[in-house]
Amino acid sequence: MLTKADIQIRDPFVLPIKESGLYYLYGSTDKDIWKGKATGFDVYRSKDLENWEGPFPAFRPPADFWSDTNYWAPEVHIYKGRYYMFATFKAEGVCRGTQILVSDDPLGPFVPHSDGPVTPRDWECLDGTLYVDKEGKPWMIFCHEWVQIKDGTICAIQLADDLSKAVGEPIRLFTASEAPWVDQLESPRHGPGYVTDGPFMYHSSDGKLYMLWSSFRGGRYAQGLAVSESGDVLGRWKQLPEPLYESDGGHGMIFQTFDGRIMLSLHSPNDTPNERAVFIELEEVDGVLRKK
């Protein structure tokens, strides 16, 4: 058995499966996700969020797979009885993008479902997440990356009912600089810019639609929230003025434990190889999410 302290992981995504009483932990699990040849994605499982079995190889690229580097931020969503992984990939001379994989088991193996990325092929994109609206239509929420456009955006694009491809054009929801808590990042490689990372959608108990997303404040990775004023994925999105977490951690998601607690999962610190999964209990107070 392993503890969270034993597991190097970025972008930790927890999938609780009530029927089995098990939590599945996915994330960016290569030792160095920034450079070199990628290996794949591993998954861990636990009954109590403290002691973990694994790693199990959730995804290993087939010989003809188009991407060989930057395997980032896998999320696994249950949709129409199957397990769909949304994950970021890149190759030399090819824009980074989110591809959708599928499996009949939460441990995998996951195999390509979409034909390459479903994000626009000429955009540098990352961190796609699934959202199903009130009419049952699937959407992917994703980031148009700041390294290409300087002021990163979060966009939505409708997906085909079988999640095999995007339909329609991407719709911009907001830019990073619209959030009052976000500071400009100074990158030696890419210069100055405003970062959008890791969107995740969450419905509060009173029906509000929140989006969790990450950027930088004071040079450190941070986690913020936006709320849809219409209650719909297309917004208008209002940024909460202060970050939810600003202690050099982010790329979070929210899940509910089997005993009903609301948990924020993120990685901290934001440096390789020291990043670890952190779970923080949240509460809803007057319709607002905050740390408990």
Automatic annotation (TrEMBL):
Name the site position(s) for Important for catalytic activity, responsible for pKa modulation of the active site Glu and correct orientation of both the proton donor and substrate. Answer: D127
Which pathway does the record list?
Glycan metabolism; L-arabinan degradation
- Record GO biological process: carbohydrate metabolic process
Q: Which UniProt keywords apply?
A: Glycosidase, Hydrolase
Which is an annotated GO molecular function term of this record? hydrolase activity, hydrolyzing O-glycosyl compounds
Source domain of life: Bacteria
Report the Gene3D superfamilies cross-referenced here: Glycosyl hydrolase domain, family 43 (2.115.10.20)
InterPro entries attached here?
Answer: GH43_arabinanases, Glyco_hydro_43, Glyco_hydro_beta-prop_sf
Family, similarity comment? Belongs to the glycosyl hydrolase 43 family.
What's the protein called, per UniProt? Answer: Glycosyl hydrolase family 43
Task: State the organism named in the record.
Answer: Insulibacter thermoxylanivorax
